[in-house]
Amino acid sequence: MPALIVYCSCPDAATADAIATALVDERLAACVTALPNARSTYRWEGRVEHSDELLLLIKTASERLDALIDRIRALHPYELPEVIAVEAVGGLAPYLRWVAEQSGVDA
């Protein structure tokens, strides 16, 4: 069962903490790591924008992705939040089993 790393940028620590806590508490993710001091440059509504953000690295089971996306959309203040899932093609087997178990999936 594949593990995923889901990237999600947040505008501030309060938003990042709220999303991380909800995802882990609701067993949609095993672990969420918040990386501070991310600087995003992007085009939005015809202008180049720059934002200081926190980047969440969300570890989850692939079976939980749809529910995880729905929960982020419900909690995130952005009109179009960044939610990008990348499959972990390998890793320490006991850790990957733990990710599945903590995400509410039988390993």
Q: What are its keywords?
A:
107 residues; alpha+beta; Alpha-Beta Plaits; 4-stranded antiparallel sheet; elongated; copper ion binding; Divalent cation tolerance protein
Describe the protein's architecture and organization.
With 107 residues, the chain is an alpha+beta fold. It has one domain (3-90): Alpha-Beta Plaits, CATH 3.30.70. Helix content is 32%, strand content 39%. It contains 3 helices and 4 strands. The protein has helices spanning 13-25, 65-75, 93-102; strands spanning 3-10, 31-44, 47-61, 84-88. Strands 2-3-1-4 form a 4-stranded antiparallel sheet. A hairpin with a 2-residue loop joins β2 (31-44) and β3 (47-61). It is elongated, with a radius of gyration of 14 Å. The protein starts with a strand and ends in a 5-residue tail after the last helix. The mean pLDDT is 96.
Short description:
InterPro entries: Ion_tolerance_CutA (IPR004323), N-reg_PII-like_a/b (IPR011322), N-reg_PII/ATP_PRibTrfase_C (IPR015867). It contains three helices and four strands, in the order βαββαβα. The protein is α+β, with helices and mostly antiparallel strands and 107 residues long.
The assigned CATH architecture is: 2-Layer Sandwich
Return the CATH class.
Alpha Beta
The average pLDDT score comes to 96
Kindly name the structural category. Answer: alpha+beta
Share of helical residues: 25-40%
Q: Quote the distance from N terminus to C terminus.
A: 7 Å
Largest sheet: 4 strands, antiparallel
CATH topology name:
Alpha-Beta Plaits
- Arrangement of strands in the largest sheet: 2-3-1-4
Strand content: 35-45%
- Which parts are unreliable, with pLDDT below 50 for 5 consecutive residues or more? none
N to C succession of SSEs = EHEEHEH
